[in-house]
Write a structure and sequence with these properties.
It contains 15 helices and four strands. The protein is mostly helical. It has two domains: 191 residues, Cytochrome Bc1 Complex, Chain D, domain 2, CATH 1.10.760.10; 117 residues, Cytochrome Bc1 Complex, Chain D, domain 2 (Orthogonal Bundle), CATH 1.10.760.10. The strands form two sheets. A two-stranded parallel sheet has the order 1-4. Strands 2-3 form a two-stranded antiparallel ribbon. 43% of the residues are buried.
Amino acid sequence: MTSRQTNRSRCLALALTTAAIMTLIALIAAPQPASAENKAAGEKTLQPLLPVPIPPDNPQTEAKVELGRMLYFDPRLSGDSSIACAKCHDPAKGFSNGLQMSDAYPGTKHWRHVPTVLNAAYLKHQFWDGRAPSLEAQAVGPIAAPIEMNQNYTHLVEKLSGIPYYVEQFKKVFNSDVNMDNLARAIAAFERTIVSKPGRVDRYLNGDKSALKESEVRGMALFTGKANCIACHHGPVLSDGEFHTTGVPEIEPLKTETDRIATRHFFATDQKYPNPRSVDADYGRELITKSAADRGRFKTPGLRELKWTAPYMHNGAFETLEEVIEFYSKGGGNHPNKDPLLKPFKLTDQEFEDLLSFLEALSSPEPLKVTKPELPKKVDGTL
């Protein structure tokens, strides 16, 4: 497979200004187009991008998005003021971190790969195990997590209340003092602007048959046919939003590094999993539901912007899309709970390249970039 692997550039070039953000808000607010595909219950199809769903209790406004952008980049949300949301979900790295494992709070080590924020607004579950039901819930979870940002909520409210900008903006946007609920709403509003723009695949699905190259069209046919990727990857962002066991192999650091094993046991304890020190691998969704039927199940990721979000899988096991295709062509990995949807398939060299071409066509020509703001100073004039 080495001959098939190529270095994929993750350079960033598309800066989002406030005007661009408002263009996204306009898209979000647009009425959702009706179609036979949208109405067909249970039908597994590829669909063009739809407007981002907005919860009724958190409408989008320009000021709220801008407040969320400021909070997203502010490392003072962490206990030692060193880790911002953008540290792990870095715009320069596909809103992930480009590494196998997530960054962690100093003195600790993480045990999972960073899921990208790109298009998370379309998904009904957040985190690999789906423990957060909304972007709002996702936004505040890492802030308190000891292995991530390690911040006390009460202390954070007092900390931000000593920064005049935040006091003014919370009053302007929410007519409230600084508080965690509205902090979550602001960050979530910003994250709902971190979405793909309609691309060539969307134009093709909307009837422009010249939008894709012949190899990409062949790859789409493989995706929906022989390879059966569409069984789990369908809809506008190519995710069923559900959980599946695919048998992704455990990576060596999670087997051997004491600090990562400690994090696994801590997480199991925090989720009130019985006998947490018996957890000898990442059980995925089971750690949340406590159901053995969910062992090894992880959320189906969306497939848009794949070129910019490597490595792949919940533990970053695969560096390239070529490796991902090879894994699934073998019917996934070995796991007693493996989803029966996974079946091996054989591809010729040309079919392999065609499927890869289609997967890459799901990405924007250039990755999305958000400009880092100048952070506001505290009452005493310091950062």
